[in-house]
Amino acid sequence: MLLTKLQIEQHNEALLKQHQRNFEFVSGCIPNADALIKKLIDFQVAIPSWALGNGGTRFGRFAGKGEPSTLEQKLEDVGLLHQLNRSSGAISLHIPWDIPKDAGALKQLAAQLDLKFDAMNSNTFQDQPGQQLSYKFGSLQHVDKAVRQQAIDHNIEVIKYGKELGAESLTVWLADGSCFPGQLNFRKAFNNTLDSLGIIYDALPDNWKMFVEYKAYEPNFYSTTVGDWGQSYLFASKLGDKAYTLVDLGHHLPNANIEQIVALLLNEKKLGGFHFNDSKYGDDDLTVGSIKPYQLFLIFKELVEGMDARGMDHTKDLGWMIDASHNVKDPLEDLLQSVEAIKIAYAQALLVDPKKLEAAQQNNDVVLAQELLQGAYRTDVRPLLAAARLKAGAALDPIGLYRQLKVREQLVKERGEHAVATGL
Ligand code: PSV
Ligand code: MN
Ligand code: MN
């Protein structure tokens, strides 16, 4: 299901006066509103294919209704999100859940929907039906060379699919690790993983990046072989210039200072991209900004400052992806909320005056430094985001329009109550 231009225009027309009042109030206090709006329009966040259906808990899965059951339908869902906010212009696929049967036709559909193919994700954390060897004791780290080879082959196959679709990066997240002390020789597991990743790295096209995602624990609860940013950084450095660390916000031990990690990885030219989500306890995969919005802002403040210091392009030099999926919301509404939260944090970070902050730091003026950050964070930038959407042809109130048009009801009619998305 797609929206018509007229539906969006009529919706915007009805909200325009109120929007203008809100916008005038905020833009009056911002020196460079036009430049900021331009940056907001350009900033796109990739939607993971596995978030389009209701995610699983560790104990079960409660499917939603009218979920996309084919890859084409997944693209259509992201196309719909992109129509609503003009900020979701990319999809991140997961193999084997999203094997493209006709890459040419998919590329065409993506072009019609104005979507790009973002990072391809491999899956060696589950055994697939008919698979010869099991990943129960790991994949790229496995003690058995044949299992390692199977996992390597899978990753190379994922690159092949990505090439057909025009993607330019591979994200490797490994469940590899151990559940009990003594189960694993840490050094051998690391070296096996490095050798395996090296073979995959060699299969990357020149213009591709490899993202090595880390995670502190789960499904293994004693050790994870790519367990933190230091280990990911080691792999990425040893592999070469095309390999980077990927930061998933939910993959840290409690209270980790993620903004500092981000700042240093950027400094070392090894930050590759993000999986945005939010959490209270662990890898909760909750809606971005729903639990710790100030942390998200602080992360973006480091990103903006670090990227500007290195002359990086905010829109394309890092991979911006969501990795959230859960049970109690309509996944499309949830994704609209997540994209909005990311852009709010980005806009607030753009409000921080780098010169004033630097001066405060130089003077050890701790109070002023905090005031500068919190002044930006406490600015209600939502009218700026709305202005960006209006200018880009999106809806002033994406969730409002989604509900007004009864999109989910339409999708249920089209796809049926029991249509279930493939994924986690
Ligand atoms: C598992 O923790 C996970 O959420 C990782 O974050 C991956 O990025 C994602 O699954 C998809 O493989
Ligand atoms: Mn992730
Ligand atoms: Mn995760």
From TrEMBL:
The keyword Cell inner membrane does not apply. One of its GO terms (molecular function) is metal ion binding. InterPro entries: L-rhamnose_isomerase, Xyl_isomerase-like_sf, Xyl_isomerase-like_TIM-brl. Keywords: Isomerase, Manganese, Metal-binding. Coiled coil: none annotated. Residues 101-285 form the Xylose isomerase-like TIM barrel domain. Pfam families: AP_endonuc_2. This is Sugar isomerase.
